[in-house]
């Protein structure tokens, strides 16, 4: 079922004590919110996942992973498997963030393997995708987004979509302070729903939650979230501050 979701991607930020105090601040500020049909998610670093789970036991906050390796186990120094994540209580993983694609060279083929492995291991997947500035400038953004979805997700069975959340993140808006306008976000989200409907059917297209990501702040969240096909946000920088992140949660 389509859900409202506000997810904080902490990236490589917050050590153990910072993780603890940010969660404490968030727990306090969202305690009184009703948040019906709304999910609040944080994605701390691997090393702090277990303690974050502990600190959110009595709260509405869900703890998810920023990444995982596609293999079950083996000689992959420095990597973390789906099994390892589920064994500590993780239920959701982010896959395909633009930083994974651009800095760590993750390709659509690899991301398809990661998504398959996550789903096989009962991990819900937040799949990120979006165009570069040059694609937007040349008017190629719809093609790029369609290609990314086709290459990674359109091989899935209809039933698998129950465990997929989409995060449209135009790369030119990530960490730049430049946000897509609410109209640009709506236009792309509606397009995404239309191609899912074409590939699958209306039911799948209407049920999937599509988050917008890229410089969402307390000042612009409400307007972006007000758009019909925007079901929430994936928040980077502004999720590192309890007051800002809870203001964004309140905007949903
Ligand atoms: P930002 O990051 O909110 O700092 O732009 C978003 C993201 O990378 O998911």
List key phrases describing it.
252 residues, alpha/beta, 8-stranded parallel sheet, 42% helix, binds 2-phosphoglycolic acid
Structure description:
Helix 1 packs parallel to helix 11 (242-250) and helix 10 (218-225) runs parallel beside helix 11 (242-250). This protein is α/β, with parallel strands linked by helices and 252 residues long. The mean pLDDT is 97. The longest helix has 18 residues, at 182-199. Helix content is 42%, strand content 15%. The protein is globular, with a radius of gyration of 17 Å. It has 11 helices and 8 strands. The protein has an 8-stranded parallel beta sheet. It has helices spanning 16-30, 49-55, 82-87, 98-103, 108-120, 133-137, 141-152, 182-199, 202-207, 218-225, 242-250, and strands at residues 4-9, 38-43, 61-63, 92-95, 124-129, 164-168, 210-213, 232-235. The protein binds 2-phosphoglycolic acid. Residues 9, 169, 174-175, 213-216, 234-238 line the site of 2-phosphoglycolic acid.
Layout: helices, strands, pairs:
Elements: E1 4-9, H1 16-30, E2 38-43, H2 49-55, E3 61-63, H3 82-87, E4 92-95, H4 98-103, H5 108-120, E5 124-129, H6 133-137, H7 141-152, E6 164-168, H8 182-199, H9 202-207, E7 210-213, H10 218-225, E8 232-235, H11 242-250
Parallel strand pairs: 1-2, 1-8, 2-3, 4-5, 5-6, 6-7, 7-8
Helix pairs in contact: 1-11, 10-11
Bound molecules: 2-phosphoglycolic acid (PGA).
Bound molecules: 2-phosphoglycolic acid
Order of secondary-structure elements: EHEHEHEHHEHHEHHEHEH
Strand content: 15-25%
Low-confidence stretches: none
Number of helices: 11
Task: Please state the average pLDDT score.
Answer: 97
Strand neighbour order, sheet with most strands: 3-2-1-8-7-6-5-4
Query: How would a crystallographer describe the biggest sheet?
Result: 8 strands, parallel
Radius of gyration: 17 Å
The residue fraction in helices comes out at: 40-55%
